[in-house]
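Lab notebook: predicted structure, single chain.

Context: the supervisor wants predicted structures on file for every construct in the current expression panel, including those that have not yet been purified. This is the next one on the list. No modifications to the sequence; it matches the entry in the shared construct table.
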Amino acid sequence: MNMIFERKLEIPMEVKKRFPVSKEMEQTVEKRQAELQSIFRGESGKLILVIGPCSADRADSVLDYIGRLRLVQDKVADKIFIIPRIYTNKPRTSGDGYKGLLHQPDPNEKPDLYKGIIATRDLHMRAVRDYGFSCADEMLYPENHKYLDDLLAYVAVGARSVEDQQHRLTASGIEVPVGMKNPTSGDFSIMMNAIRTAQHKHTFIYRGWAAHSLGNPYAHAILRGYTNKHGNMLPNYHYEDLMKVYELYQKSDLVNPALLIDTNHANSGKDPFEQPRIVREVLTCRKYNADLKGLIKGFMVESYLEDGNQPVGGKCYGKSITDACLGWNKTEQLIYDIAEML
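Prediction complete. Output recorded below exactly as produced.
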C-alpha cells in the first residue's frame, strides 16, 4: 500500500482501562440515555437541542462553553433536553484543512493521532464528570466509535457518510440515538434507507471481529439542506420538506419516527445568524400541524463563545476555526426564546 505505518495505536479496551469511567459518570450517562430515549419514543414532550461549536478545537474554551450551557439547562430543564456538541472529527470537502481534535490535539502543530485519541476521550469524560453532560459527536470514522461509546448521548452521521455501508451497519449496533443526515445531494430516499439499515440487525466485520448488531430503534432523520449541481446551497426546513419526511415515515415500517433540523450548513447558507430565524419557522410549523409536532424532536445549532469564525492560529478565545458559529449571547437568548415558544 502507498502508506507509511507510523505506530500501532492502543485499542479502545486498553484506552478505557487507562481512562476509566467512574460509577457516578456511568450513572449520569445512563440516566441521560434513558431520558433521551423516552423523547424519541414520544413518552416525553421535551425538545432536543444538540448545540455547540462546529469543532471542539481546544478543551478550555469548549468546557467554558459547556459550563455556561449547564446553567441554562437547569433553567429550561422542564422543556428542553440539551446535548452539547463535542465534535472531535471534521470532514473536509477537499480533504485539506483542520480535521479535528482527533487528528490535531493542538491545531497549530502536526497531527498526532495517539494524543488525539486521549484528548477526545478526556474532553468527553470531563463534560460528563464536571458538568453532568453526556454529549454528541459525529461518527466520521466508524471504527473509532468504541473509544467513546461509554460516554456519548448522541451520534450523528454526516451528509458525506450517510451513503456509506460501514457507517450504516455500525449505527445498527449503537445503543444511543443516531441521526442520519440527508446527503449533500438532498435525496431523502438515501437518508431514509440509511435509517432503515440502521434499525435492522446485521452481520459484518467490525474492528477485525465477525460482529452481529441488534438494530438501533432510535436511528432517525436530520435535514441539513443540500447543494444543487451548480454548487448552490438550498434549504430543506420549510413546511413542504417537513411534511415530505412525515409522509415517507408513514409509508415505511420504521419505528420511533423522528426528525431533527440542522439549522446551519446548507439550511442557513452557512450564515450562523440565520439559525434563530430557522428555529422559529420550524417551531411555527410544529405548532400548526400536530403530525409535525410529533415528528420534529429538536434542532442542531452551531454556536460557540464568540460570533463568526477565524483562521487556524487565530487568537480570539472561543471563536470557531472551522464553520462560523452563533456567539454565546445570541445562543443563550435563543434557548430562552425556544423555551418560551414551546
